[in-house]
Amino acid sequence: FLRPHAALEKKVPVLIPELDKLPNMPAKWTKLISLSQEWLMDQTP
């Protein structure tokens, strides 16, 4: 979901706007983990 795929004409399967401006894959993974933690915290009553 982060890397371009040949079957999708070199497009990524899932576009996440928060990741577009990040310079490299480690930064994207770090941001993705952060976003998921925020989402989990929002789900907790």
Topology:
Elements: H1 25-43
How would you describe the overall organization of this protein?
This protein is mostly helical and 45 residues long. The chain contains one helix and no strands. The protein has one helix spanning 25-43. The longest helix is centred in the C-terminal third of the chain and has 19 residues, at 25-43. The radius of gyration is 13 Å and the shape is elongated.
What is the gist of this entry?
The chain is mostly helical and 45 residues long.
Q: Biggest β-sheet: count, sense, barrel?
A: none
Rg, rounded, reads 13 Å
Number of helical regions:
1
Low-confidence stretches: none
Determine the fraction of residues in helical runs and give it as a percent range. Answer: 40-55%
Q: Any idea how many domains? A: 1
> Termini separation (Å)?
29 Å
Mean pLDDT: 90
Principal-axis shape: elongated
Instruction: Work out the number of β strands.
Output: 0
Q: Based on helices, strands and strand pairing, what is the structural class?
A: mainly alpha
Strand content: under 5%
What's the order of the H and E elements?
A: H
